[in-house]
Amino acid sequence: MQKTYKLSVNSGATFEVNESEVHHLDAVATGTNSFHVLKDNLPYKAEIVAADFIAKKYTVKVNNNTYEVAIADELDQLITSMGIQRGRHKVVNAIKAPMPGLILEINVEVGQEVVENDPLLILEAMKMENSFVSPRDGKIKSIAVVKGQAVDKGQLLIEFE
């Protein structure tokens, strides 16, 4: 059974492509992310500019025109047809200690605006330093610990507004 993929280009035009069409594509790599492609006897210069493998979204430049391409396999299409939105996550409003340890450093203050991946604090546990980064953009509502404090597993460390 052949797999079918649904390609969405620039959040508008959609195309269905099956495995045999992909395998019969006449493409030659000319660099790490660049290719020379022949389609219907016409040459194309293609380059992958950006790739988000988890979200299955790519920015592709073809003959100096840039396109945003999203790829959905059969599972993605089934999930969408069921009305479920993939990638929806529960918003994290609190950071809790995953294990007992000692707070070595706190890098934020109450009321501070943070963006995803900003450093929040460092927890030492089992002779290892564990850095905690912000799971989302937001504002620090409260900090429930102080530097040098011992914490238990599950104890509230930082809360977001």
Key structural traits:
mainly beta, OB fold (Dihydrolipoamide Acetyltransferase, E2P), 161 residues, seven-stranded antiparallel sheet, Biotin_lipoyl, Single_hybrid_motif, biotin, Acetyl-CoA carboxylase biotin carboxyl carrier protein subunit, 2 helices, Biotin_Carboxyl_Carrier/Decarb, four-stranded antiparallel sheet, 15 strands
Q: Would you kindly provide a written description of the structure presented here, covering whatever features stand out?
A:
The chain has 161 residues and is mainly β. The protein folds into 2 domains: 4-81, no CATH class; 94-160, OB fold (Dihydrolipoamide Acetyltransferase, E2P) (Beta Barrel). It is built from 2 helices and 15 strands. It has a 7-stranded antiparallel β-sheet with strand order 2-1-7-6-5-4-3. The chain has a 4-stranded antiparallel β-sheet with strand order 8-15-13-10, with no helix packed on it. The protein has a 4-stranded antiparallel β-sheet with strand order 12-11-9-14, with no helix packed on it. The protein is elongated and about 70 Å long. Residues 79-161 form the Lipoyl-binding domain. This is Acetyl-CoA carboxylase biotin carboxyl carrier protein subunit. Keywords: Biotin.
